[in-house]
Amino acid sequence: MLRKNGFKKSHIKTFFANGATGINVPGELAHHVHPAAMKLALRYHIQTMCRSPHCVNSLVLYMNSPAKSDGTMYLWDINSDGLAVDAEKYYLKEFKEDISNCQAEYVHVIVDQSFSGNIADAFKNSNDHRNVVVFASGKDHEYAFDDEFTSHWAKANHTTECTWQVQKQIKNKASKSTPESHEGQRGEVRTTIFGAPCHVIPPFSNRELRHDYLGCQSLPTALWIKKLFADKNPWRY
Fold it and tell me: pTM of this prediction?
């Protein structure tokens, strides 16, 4: 889904299990997988994406793991003892901290796991997450079923449709759960998954999308100058 919509392979990071097995795509070298067991590395990567100015325009976080009814996510049983300790759990509070006041223009969080509604609810009207929108596969008390939710997202037309539209369509099609969504400050995120405006008439041409939105975009000179000026004047507000 991300590759089809302008996200470069090198910019897509996967944290899964112990990271021992790569992801194989026909015709390509195996995609490197980082171990989810390394919780600090996972959190550091997300924090870096969010705390670096002008680093990310549209940040997409896809979450799919076993979860507790309070939204806590289980990363990996490192020592195979069947018991989950803090280092093996990603708490909802930690996730909120990691993407609070994120420097990305838009943060789309797609959660396909049991009790995912808890995560969506946690961001509702949050002042620290004005640019975050969470799309959950079900309500806070519902389980996730197979890959129904993920499959709908992967097959959707993201070229012109807002992520909100995609979620609405999925909600109408879902048969085993009730997908829901919430955002930090209503109205902040109304774009496609790669950050382009939606409802554009006439629609953007493929050339316009490639030039202005898909893949890496050049940062305007004015922003570079502004950043340099800010670095030289750290106490100026």
Answer: 0.86
